Known about the structure:
alpha+beta, YojJ-like (1, 2 domains, seven-stranded mixed sheet, 14% strand, elongated
Amino acid sequence: xxxxxxxxxxxxxxxxxxxxxxxxxxxxxxxxxxxxxxxxxxxxxxxxxxxxxxxxxxxxxxxxxxxxxxxxxxxxxxxxxxxxxxxxxxxxxxxxxxxxxxxxxxxxxxxxxxxxxxxxxxxxxxxxxxxxxxxxxxxxxxxxxxxxxxxxxxxxxxxxxxxxxxxxxxxxxxxxxxxxxxxxxxxxxxxxxxxxxxxxxxxxxxxxxxxxxxxxxxxxxxxxxxxxxxxxxxxxxxxxxxxxxxxxxxxxxxxxx
Length: 257
């Protein structure tokens, strides 16, 4: 027992450092994928300035920076409640809704991809605007909560009834979890990317915004041009064919396995 205590005593600092590094790393990675990333960078700069003032013994500036930092932290909690809520949901491995993410079997995945590709092609021909997000590893529970929960199998007919211009659910996005439509009329965050072409409409900006905040794959059909686009990991591919859409979806959704 004495030997075990000695080993624990010497190894404890290393264990604490590893745990602390792991926690900080995942916090930074999470915020890097959200709209709060620039604010987080600003807070890091404030912390660095705060320590410099402390080291130099600049008491007045040190006091001012302490107050600014305290107010900034409170502001972050107020402004970024959705992101913090989503982060806590991931930490607990849970979700804010009744839907549970699962890995599709190969044949189920193929059926889903074919349905989505056919639907996108049909929407493109009819110029029906659409915004469809597919959940991967990151929970989309906070966005599901913002819409109308449906919990129904994916079908071309249901998607068309949702996105027809006379439907009360056509504004907003659809979230698909597994092979089921979890919710419609969901609110997605708009990208703040100033370099994005002005030819993109609100649906494209929402698709890109969601792909910046999560690892979701987002399909967009333009109501004006009928062009199909796909957003993932903060990038958007425009004017793709049914075959390109199927191939890209297959590659991206298989990465979840």
